[in-house]
Amino acid sequence: MIPRYTLPEMADLFADQSRYATWVEVEILATEAQVRLGHVPAEALADIRRAPVPLAARVAEFEKERDHEVLSFLAAYCENIPESSARWVHLGMTSYDLVDTSLGHTLARATDLLVAAGRRLRRALTGTALAHWDTVMVGRTHGVHAEPTTFGHKLGGYAFAVDRSLTRLAAARDAVAVGTISGSVGTYALIDPAVEAHVCRALGLGVEPVPSQVVARDRHAQLLQAVAALGACIEQIALELRLLQRTEVREVEEPRASAYQGSSAMPHKRNPTTSERLCGLARLLRGYATTALENVALWHERDLAHQSVERVILPDSLSVGHFQATKAAELVESLTVHPQRMRAHIDATDGLIYSSSVLAELLGEGTERERAYRSVQAAANRTIATGEHFATTLAQEGIDLPALGPERFLTHHDVLRSRLEKLRELDD
């Protein structure tokens, strides 16, 4: 996590001090359950509740000697608990009962932040799409002018892609929002399952059904796959906006502050840096997702090879994904659209984008398909070679160009709009 791509609310969740606060919460809840079971005296619970969350710096001091974060945390925490009560802290638990249950709670909250940013992006896309539903532009396939479409249609497709990503994130949140307090190798040999049930219920977590001592790492892999999928959807949006901002296209523009400077050498530059940044961050997310898959297979009931990896990929993936979704929403919300440029490009190829309609007209009149196709193609090739209007070269083939405009291609556009309006209702 670096500040440049981390928003404060996500940084706070993954800070060391926040982690230790969650660990304290788990320890208190576990002790509550032990008191209810009659295994711990009630006065010990009172002492444990009164103890403050240990400072991260103090835990770090202990860890220099112990080389074990959980034991160092417990040492720092118990410094402020009377010895007669401190001995009941962590009763029957193993380290990852504390670590993984707390992690599940943190990942659920972090995913909630990401989902909120994704919903904002979906809302921005549907709103802008409906505002530009009839803003006609040329559609492009393989980078080449194809047929007319609208800017709203383009953004509408992206809105549904983000919506699908939100569905995947919801499922992934359910997968990671679990805990386990089952003791060494997950057998509950020294701890009653009622402790686990109490802690997880209080934290809003499910329970790992058959723990091995740790929560299964395919859960985290699922989450990071979902984050990467949202990142790829945002990359598609950003890539399109980059392409539409090229000098020779200039159909949209990113928002820029009055003091904006695009180049240290060329004062005229207006670069699509926000869109480029969003594309770059998607590459990171795919890398994190791949690494998460490497963490699924652990030795026997557990090993520690995954821990160092998770300390990087879990906070980084959620931080980057949250930043990316938030900035993408801001970009779409404040995007400048140039309808006149879009309309101008409709006519840039001298009528060639209507070739499919001409072909359809000929086929409807009964012309054999191969003959019709070759005739229209020959006229198109002459337009490309000579710059003559398509109507002229068609006439040379004995074909009259029907009275066509881009609206001809939007016959069933209202059907698509109604689908988008239903999606927008999710955010109303």
From TrEMBL:
<dbReference type="GO" id="GO:0044208">
    <property type="term" value="P:'de novo' AMP biosynthetic process"/>
</dbReference>
<dbReference type="InterPro" id="IPR022761">
    <property type="entry name" value="Fumarate_lyase_N"/>
</dbReference>
<comment type="similarity">
    <text>Belongs to the lyase 1 family. Adenylosuccinate lyase subfamily.</text>
</comment>
<dbReference type="InterPro" id="IPR000362">
    <property type="entry name" value="Fumarate_lyase_fam"/>
</dbReference>
<dbReference type="InterPro" id="IPR004769">
    <property type="entry name" value="Pur_lyase"/>
</dbReference>
<comment type="pathway">
    <text>Purine metabolism; IMP biosynthesis via de novo pathway; 5-amino-1-(5-phospho-D-ribosyl)imidazole-4-carboxamide from 5-amino-1-(5-phospho-D-ribosyl)imidazole-4-carboxylate: step 2/2.</text>
</comment>
<comment type="pathway">
    <text>Purine metabolism; AMP biosynthesis via de novo pathway; AMP from IMP: step 2/2.</text>
</comment>
<keyword id="KW-0456">Lyase</keyword>
<dbReference type="InterPro" id="IPR008948">
    <property type="entry name" value="L-Aspartase-like"/>
</dbReference>
<dbReference type="GO" id="GO:0005829">
    <property type="term" value="C:cytosol"/>
</dbReference>
<protein>
    <recommendedName>
        <fullName>Adenylosuccinate lyase</fullName>
        <ecNumber>4.3.2.2</ecNumber>
    </recommendedName>
</protein>
<dbReference type="InterPro" id="IPR020557">
    <property type="entry name" value="Fumarate_lyase_CS"/>
</dbReference>
<dbReference type="GO" id="GO:0004018">
    <property type="term" value="F:N6-(1,2-dicarboxyethyl)AMP AMP-lyase (fumarate-forming) activity"/>
</dbReference>
<dbReference type="GO" id="GO:0006189">
    <property type="term" value="P:'de novo' IMP biosynthetic process"/>
</dbReference>
<dbReference type="GO" id="GO:0070626">
    <property type="term" value="F:(S)-2-(5-amino-1-(5-phospho-D-ribosyl)imidazole-4-carboxamido) succinate lyase (fumarate-forming) activity"/>
</dbReference>
<dbReference type="Pfam" id="PF00206">
    <property type="entry name" value="Lyase_1"/>
</dbReference>
<dbReference type="InterPro" id="IPR024083">
    <property type="entry name" value="Fumarase/histidase_N"/>
</dbReference>
<feature type="domain" description="Adenylosuccinate lyase C-terminal">
    <location>
        <begin position="350"/>
        <end position="421"/>
    </location>
</feature>
<dbReference type="InterPro" id="IPR019468">
    <property type="entry name" value="AdenyloSucc_lyase_C"/>
</dbReference>
<keyword id="KW-0658">Purine biosynthesis</keyword>
